[in-house]
Amino acid sequence: MAASAWHFLIGGALLAAITAVREPAPAIHWTPQFITALLFLSLVGTAAAFLAWFTEATRSRLDLLTAWTLLVPVIGIGVSLFLPGERPPPAAAAGIVLVLTSLWLVLRRPRRGAGKNGGTKDSDAAHRAGR
Questions:
Q1: 90 CB-contact burial (10 Å; exposed 0-12 / middle 13-18 / buried 19+)
Q2: What one-character DSSP code corresponds to residue 116?
Q3: How far is CA 106 from CA 14, 63, 81, 93, 110, in A?
Q4: Burial annotation 16-55 (CB, 10 A radius, 16+ → b, else e)
Q5: Can you give the pLDDT at residue 86?
Q6: Residue 70: what pLDDT?
Q7: How far apart are CA 59 and CA 46, in angstroms?
Q8: What is the C-alpha to C-alpha distance for residues 33 and 99, in angstroms, rounded to an integer?
Q9: Residues in the chain with pLDDT < 50?
Q10: Quick check: 57 and 65 in contact, CB under 8 A?
Q11: Phi/psi zone of residue 48: left (φ > 0), alpha (ψ -120 to 50 degrees), beta?
Q12: Contact at 8 Å (CB) between 127 and 115?
């Protein structure tokens, strides 16, 4: 947990420094629409998402939890279907199938006896405990 906090802090500081050097100062127009969007993205899109992630990280196996991040591009493609002028290329369908198949392979429960020689003692014990 602490490593993730440092990761965000260091990464954010580096991005801020690079942006300060390479980008001009932005002109922000503080309209009610901008403030509403900023609050929604800050509170729901970032803070609530990270709170949910770290809460679940304390209860779940991280190898299984991180597998769900494979859905990020699938959700992005799905959302783009509802945006005007956005049409994913046909190859995106193959990518979606690949991602969903990979997710299924990672998350499915192994058959009885299949995990006796595979995996580690910790992962097998956690699996039996339902974590």
A1: exposed
A2: S
A3: 34, 9, 27, 20, 10
A4: eeeeeeeeeeeeeeeeeeeeeeeeeeeeeeeeeeeeeeee
A5: 85
A6: 87
A7: 20
A8: 35
A9: none
A10: yes
A11: alpha
A12: yes
For residue 131, the model assigns a pLDDT of 54
pLDDT at 40: 92
Per-residue pLDDT, 119: 52
Q: End-to-end distance of the chain based on CA atoms, in angstroms?
A: 18
118 DSSP 8-state letter: S
28: tokens are 């922000």
Count of residues in the chain: 131
Please give the Cα distance from 50 to 67 (Å, whole number): 16
Q: Burial of 127 by CB count in 10 Å (0-12 exposed, 13-18 middle, 19+ buried)? A: middle
pLDDT at position 49 is 86
